Amino acid sequence: MAQSDLFGAEADSAGQPVDPAQAAAALRAELNEHAHRYYVLDAPIIPDAEYDRLFQALQALEHSHPELITPDSPTQRVLGKVLPGFEPVRHAAPMLSIRTETDTEASGALAFDGRVRRELGLTEADPPVDYAAELKFDGLAINLRYEAGVLVRAATRGDGEVGEDVTQNIRTIGQIPLRLKGCDAPVLEVRGEVYMRRDDFESLNERQRQRGDKTFVNPRNAAAGAVRQLDPAIAAQRPLRFFAYGLGETQGWDVPPTHAGVLDALSAMGFPVCQHRTVAHGATELVAFHERIGAQRDGLPYDIDGVVYKVNRRDLQAQLGFVTREPRWAVAHKYPAQEQVTQVEGIDVQVGRTGKLTPVARLKPVFVGGVTVTNATLHNLFELRRKQVRVGDTVIVRRAGDVIPEVVGRVPGPRPAYVPNFHMPSGCPVCGSTVVRERGEVDHRCSGGLFCAAQRKQALLHFAQRRAMDIEGLGDKLVDQLVQGGLVRTLPELYKLGVARLAVLDRMADKSAANVVAALEKSKTTTLPRFLFGLGIRHVGETTAKDLARHFGSMDRIMDATEAQLLEVKDVGPVVAQSIRTFFDQPHNREVVEQLRAAGVTWPEHEPAALADAASLPLSGKTLVLTGTLPTLSREDAKALIEAAGGKVAGSVSRKTHYVVAGSEAGSKLDKAQELGIPVLDEAGLQALLSHTAG
Ligand code: IVH
């Protein structure tokens, strides 16, 4: 944008000096708007490099005019000073806690509604009470104080009366606005939860583990630890996020009459507000919400330990008031805990796809996070030693979402006089090959490669999984039989399986054999990222596979890329680049790719992003919205195809939408498209668009 040069140079294009104060204010406003789009809406409209340029222009301006630095300047998100300790902050309005309904069954919601109705003096003849239903996030409660629209203080809850001043650290959280959009009320305090997503937590811990550093127990502890970090530079490196869920003190702000209205207003001011919320009419709808969220819980990207119901009308809230430190108008309705205590009955060693040996605790069965867990990972020898886990110990087990259950730590207590320490075997427990550990690595590995049945099996399961080739029915038991029986030794051999060969296997009726063959056939039409991810190249996860596919556009270009070329891909560092190069330097790996292609596995390819003028991709600059179920493409596949073609997929229909792709049972998005006169395509129409304009 020309503007930034103009501000940076403190002169406009005609060489006229501009007022630095005005220039700084305009840059701040522009940067804050882009930060909101990037962090909260997840829909940036300028490239990162452009943001950096604007940012540097503002930095330069503030450097020469330090008096222009304001607390809402985006340059103030990262501060370097290490604090000696946190200052206490007395909350203007106490931060209350919330009554917990420990009954995890539906009756928990009924009991709350019953109490509210009684307190309000309602009879059965009266209509249902409206409740705002939302998630109970498992993080750290924070009070954000805005004066005249600018963030002036952030404090932890503390004892509810007095918390700690953590403003420095909170400023580093990109999702938290430094200036409110469209609100300059003298005082507005916003309350909410600072949390860490599970995937961010897993990668943080994986990094710690690879470095041999101490890992964090769960996302909540990692988030709380980061917020209470005395060095804001460290806090800034922790991937923290925020959801707003309520108010503290307000002065001069016209508070909406309902809680749902408050959340809408906060969202409009630029706060992230969780989309999983609703207004429930009476107890039955509370029960439905509790059940619906319970079913979705594992798929959410962050931990929740329950849902929260709040009487929606604020006048009724005031009428209900408080008992001790808890409001009568709100309750938390729990789900089964994600951490439990149980006993270690043994420690086994499992061999993974890349040959990694993982110590796994065999547990006395325990119900955690909604399922019964009998095994939990101990990650590696060093982590096991640090946690000092031995057979017979009582341990805390954590299972959250799709994440593999893990032993978090040992509960201190007496131990029998002699329990032998755990040792890694020197030979692979599956194939007997030598176990090695490379210098500087924490993991022990089986050196057997695809000679090792465990590695073969895991490689097949990895290839077949939903996020890779999505071969339905090719699960653990079947793969076991295929490998043990010697029917499949390499990935391409999968596609040689016929009904006759499958049907002779244990528990395989003709019909299910036919289903597996059909699933194999269907999997042949895939996308480049799925195929690449499915190959199981070390360090190439789903995201890296997508980035590689987008950058190079074709399998051959990826296989032939030099390390230097690989390093040009977003987020690919030396370790990943080397791993990809090493993989394709093995002739047998290239052969696997060729044989799979020969077996009929195909995917669309495109020009390399580096060469393609961005505008020449068929869908560049176009925004599409998907709705309903398409006949053959899953939503993920459709999205991947659109993105590979340079398009963007948005979540809702607006005037900026170029096309809506609708399948069966399309809902309100289709109505909206028709209302706005936006072209609606079916799957064939999308395919035509992808191929038609290509080239
Ligand atoms: S409202 C008066 N809403 O739960 C009600 N709290 O005991 C005050 N929490 O640590 C809290 N999600 O941080 C509210 N959607 C939500 C919440 C929530 C999580 C936490 C909160 C505090 C505890 C309240």
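^ 2-(butylsulfanyl)adenosine complex. The radius of gyration is 28 Å. Residues 339-410 form a domain with the OB fold (Dihydrolipoamide Acetyltransferase, E2P) fold (CATH 2.40.50.140).
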